[in-house]
Design a protein that fits this description.
The protein is α+β, with helices and mostly antiparallel strands. It folds into four domains: 86 residues, no CATH class; 126 residues, no CATH class; 33 residues, no CATH class; 75 residues, no CATH class. It contains 15 helices and 13 strands. An eight-stranded mixed beta sheet has the order 9-5-10-3-1-4-12-13. A three-stranded antiparallel beta sheet has the order 6-7-8, with no helix packed on it. A two-stranded antiparallel sheet has the order 2-11.
Amino acid sequence: MNLAEMLRGNPLAQKRLADNFAMDQQGDLARMMQQHGTVQDPARVQEPQALGNLPMDVPQYTPDNAPDFSEQLMNLMPIAGMLKAGGKVNPYLKGVAEGDELIGMHNLSADNLAHAQEIGGLPVPSIGIAKANAPLEGFGDISLIARQDMVTPGRGNPVVGADAYSKRYPNIVEHNGEDKIFKGFTNSGNRRYAPHTLDNVVKEMKGPVTDTEGWNYGAGSLRSNYAPKFRTLEGIQKARDQVVPEKNMPAVREEMNERLFGLADDLLPYDKHYKKYELGYGDTVTARLGPKERLSDYYEGIPPELSAKISKFKKELVDSPTAYFEAKPQRGVQLQEFGGAIVPDNVDARTLEILKRNGIENVERYGGAEEGKYKTKAEAMKQFRDLMFSTGGSGFLASQLSGQDR
């Protein structure tokens, strides 16, 4: 597949390319593409509306026949990882051990997939970025596999270096025979409703991402407030060693929560408002340790060694392992934007029809006993190497704008 063919068949790739040209203020990308014969007229490249008809002439865009050009362009264009390049190795995986690759996925149940089809998409979905050899198992047995551009940080697509503990789907109730979004009460005590549409659910769910679920998870909630907000795909790639299998996480959570509650005990003698440990005090301390709070507002005379202990805990909490990073696109995401799906072997016909209707043809099954079936989701995930990433990426242009990797 050459670059022109890929662009004409993928509007998302066209938009990503247009975004890169918009950022290419010095014209470096356009000149490089002209030098290598990819475009004839760099002036036309600057016009996003002309993307569908760009005169692109390189017959094969792969690392084999254009190594220098490919290497440079990979660092300029996040869409480059979307190329299968005729079955060639995904250049995003250069130097990465098998199983250590990162990949984005959104897990959901068959019923939730049907619901997304019914309302026209997924409102502000959580896209987990995990290791390919340890894919996420919770939230549903169907995994929609994200393309690299869906997990590339940017305006309207925040990516957090941990579980974000973000807003959940709003409360849906039946009112006058129709499903409605319950929006609370008016000042006079009347119930407020809104139509249950994709746009209205997006309005309810978008906005601040971290620690907005409305429930305190102890060290996990505190960590989400301090977790890095990635600015580039390269920053995510560099942090991949922090991602570990979910089975390793209970011990990490237990240790961090024990240390947090230990700090609550240590802080109690200096508390201006509490004289003894009361129900909910641990949650209170968790909130007080957040980045927007000042301990001096709640405590008096904290000794230097305790202040140092608190600072050390916060740093080690942020640096501790996580099962996944989380991307949170602030919009309704269409099912056809995903690059593939992994489904259980006993998947129902309705699910397969929904996937097919939305152009998701790359579907792998797991959990089957028959010969040739993948026993685990991790084995099925190996079939999506073209959507994995771990090195290289969007670095140059994005890092020039952000000034840092994450």
